[in-house]
Amino acid sequence: MADDFGYLNARVRARRGTLLKESFFQEALDLSFPDFLRLLSESAYGQDLAGQGLSEVDRAIAQAQARLVGDLPRLVTGEAREAVRFLLLRQDLANLQALLRAKATGRPFEEVPLLPGTIKEELWRQAYEAQDLAGMAQVLSVPGHPLARALRAVLRETQDPARVEALLAKRFFEDVAKGAKVLEEPALRDYLSLEVDAENLRTAFKLMGQEANPEALFIRGGRFVDRLRFARLLEGDYAALDELSGTPLAGLSGVRELKELERRLRCLLLKEARKGTADPLGAGLVLAYVKEREWEAMRLRLLARRAYFGLPKELVEEEVTCA
């Protein structure tokens, strides 16, 4: 087993060759569901496709992602493994936040788009089926996952869903992810800082206009969104967002709704992660790959639903496209 990025990146470079081309997504926008299945079966997802329904497509996407991303930590040791493990822990945070939203809204577990992380799907299911949020934390504590400790601590402060999500992100980036910060990996460190900015912006939009203590919610470690700007946004001062020209967040100017913020952040973060392809000897390449697979899975799920329900492509076209 290799302990450096050279071996890992050689494997990642080969897997990047199986990423779906942009032409796949353009073609899929106009396809019927049977034709979408045919196209998908001819891709890297084909070997995991074992049926003709929407649930089988979701299953194929999840299995392929686990096969192509979830095994990366087992390929290497040392700092390379730590870097990959952090990226998958970040996916765990996104999964936990998605499960919390699903439980709050009654969305079935099967419709939660889980990302490949360090926790297996069955454990997520058990967490989802727990009687309450404290029970969810207890399930996650079985494998000793750091997010279990974070969730327990957050639940002692609040039960409000939006605040639980925000405080989980704060504890993740300020505590769980601190190990990634000591790695001498500039691409990963810079991207991590931008993720912190993104989380602060999401929290500001979700809690805008509500009574909230900025100091309690603000995540330290970002580059362009400081506590003052965060507090201004919480109060509804959109000018704080429009003042980010000249930074990687400049594309957020004019955003006034959470949905649009999420869409633009998704594309902006993907663009920044892809800069890692110029880092063949460090963590940048695997960072780019993990985020590209994440974007690929999201697009496939949306396109499968458009085709299955016979929806006009205009309903999803903007959501599956990054300029």
From TrEMBL:
GO cellular component: proton-transporting V-type ATPase, V0 domain
InterPro entries from the UniProt entry: ATPase_csu/dsu_sf, ATPase_V0-cplx_csu, ATPase_V0-cplx_csu/dsu, V-ATPase_V0D/AC39_subunit, V-type_ATPase_csu/dsu, V-type_ATPase_csu/dsu_dom_3
Highest taxon of source: Bacteria
Signal sequence bounds: none
Key words of the record: ATP synthesis, Hydrogen ion transport, Ion transport, Transport
A GO biological process held by the record: proton motive force-driven plasma membrane ATP synthesis
UniProt GO MF annotations: ATP binding; proton-transporting ATP synthase activity, rotational mechanism; proton-transporting ATPase activity, rotational mechanism
Key word Kinase present: no
Family statement drawn from the similarity comment of this UniProt entry: Belongs to the V-ATPase V0D/AC39 subunit family.
Function: Produces ATP from ADP in the presence of a proton gradient across the membrane.
HAMAP family named in the record: ATP_synth_C_arch (MF_00314)
Protein name (database record): V-type ATP synthase subunit C
Organism of provenance: Thermus aquaticus
